[in-house]
Design brief:
alpha/beta, Arginase, Chain A, 2 domains, 7-stranded mixed sheet, 5-stranded parallel sheet, elongated
Amino acid sequence: MYLRAGIDSLPRMSLDSISLARSAVPGFAIAIAVLIAGLLLALTVGRYPVSLGDLLSVLYAKAAGHRADVAPAVETFLQLEASGWKAKRGTALMQDDGDAGFVRRATLALAERGQCEIVTLRAGGTPVAAAIVLRHQDRAFYFKLGVDEQFAKLSPGVQLTLDLTRHLCADPAIAMADSTASPDHPMINPIWRGRLAIGDVLIPLRPRDPVVPLIRAAARKWPELCVLHVDSHTDCHPVDQEHPYDAASQFSHVALEQRVSPNASWHVGVRGSTYRPGVMNHTRALGYNIVTMRDYMLRGEQDVLAELHRAMKGRPVYLSWDMDSFDPSVAPGVCTPTWGGFTAREGLQFLRGLAGLDIVAIDINTVSPPHDVNGMAAHLAAQIAFDCMLLLTERPERRDL
């Protein structure tokens, strides 16, 4: 876990008609921080030839929504960002055609959807600072800042940030703003004193990635964890004492260790033969629910998804996706190919139907490159990974990350 500076979504307070989001410290402390930063800026500017009045002669300007407005604003930002230390380090976006092209395309496309704006501060007619601000639902992300370092002693980046803070706090559509900066960033830290707890979601893809330790780690964070296991097998064989840890018994371990809630956990897509008798009975005896592939086809996708959403609503979910849930005709390169599985379309539709569940951890397993044909299973696994990351954007809001 790591921390990121930000404005949180707790109740707001008002100071001189400027709405300020309360952070981890009381709201009045945020107000004081903004006022102190402004005072320091004024004192600093007073020592240099350009006056504060000149710096603010053209106030904070926003370009959003229309391509004709956003395109020149993006170019202004790129030029400012490339004018200073980033260019010396070789990390300015304009120094890489691919990076610059991506930012140009992305900002224009997002701006047309109301999800991006470019804010600019000018001294007279000269732009001295510009920033890209992204929006998603009720959140804003202070993505990138560029300043003209000829004006560095006048702190144009601080002034732009102060104006942006007022703008975001006064916007009723914004409940939280993320600086995307490290928690002790020297510029943003005195202004945005709140903290967002950030968690990393691990999606293991390598062969023999252990599932049991991953579930143990997730269960430490979310004690009410349940499992959604999509596979042609339950991987819930009785534990072999001579070889206790293997891919066939991992869900037995996590149930016996009480790491998950079996009664709220599901194995979906089960079919084919097993190497030991009684595996299905053992799985059910531990409390797990099973939807075989035959059940799935008879009931239909919507009925199964409705049951999963009812059973798992409000619970943290560990999603384990075994690539042999797919039929070998679309995913031949798996460890245990089993005929009669999902087509690519069926599997992807089912996965996308999980949107809205509180999925907190994911693994994608059993791709076997030596058995793959033209990379079919690998490419499909990559699509599954991409869709899983999209699912994370559909999670219900949590306050305990």
